[in-house]
Write a structure and sequence with these properties.
Blueprint: H1 4-14, E1 20-24, H2 29-45, E2 48-56, H3 69-91, E3 96-104, H4 106-114, E4 119-124, H5 133-145, E5 150-154
Parallel strand pairs: 1-2, 1-4, 2-3, 4-5
Helix pairs in contact: 4-5
């Protein structure tokens, strides 16, 4: 692999400006594959990764959780923040990383953060079941509204 200087020169010659790569993270195998692909691109282009975890306000949580909504939200935030910190630590010697945890509708958050990004790398596990309608909805809305180019990384079990 060439030096950082030669990569920057290649990037200038090709007109490709890839400084920030947004990777939505839901801790699935599919998003892990998308992250690995993004990490490789970030290394190649000297880009920074922006890892976004969205606590979906429309998600249905199992009744077994049996927590009041406010406690469930607090728990989801704590788990999300902890997991994102661990993920950032696992990448710290490889690429520059920023982590963000937000709540809301995943597609809206991804589209919003795409405004600060040069590329979004989105995972797709290829399973479009009726109970996964929010996932399909998320991908479709991001494809329609993102402010920068998108790359879909497929993951099949």
């Amino acid at each position: 692999m060439g030096s950082v200087g030669s990569r920057a020169q290649i990037n200038q010659e090709s007109g490709c400006r890839l400084k920030r790569i947004l990777v939505p993270i839901d801790f699935s195998a599919a998003s892990s594959r998308a992250l690995e692909f993004a990490r490789s691109l970030a290394e190649q282009y000297g880009a920074r990764l922006l890892l976004l975890h969205v606590i979906d306000i429309n998600a249905q949580y199992p009744r077994s959780a049996a927590l009041p909504a406010s406690e469930m939200t607090t728990e989801l935030w704590a788990r999300g923040l902890t997991a994102m910190r661990q993920l950032a630590r696992s990448l710290e010697n490889q690429v520059a990383v920023r982590t963000v945890v937000e709540d809301g509708l995943p597609w809206e958050q991804i589209v919003s953060w795409s405004e600060e990004s040069d590329l979004v790398i989105l995972a797709n596990n290829g399973k479009w079941s009726p109970w996964k309608i929010f996932s399909r909805h998320t991908v479709e809305r991001v494809l329609q509204k993102a402010a920068c180019p998108l790359m879909i990384v497929h993951h099949h079990n």
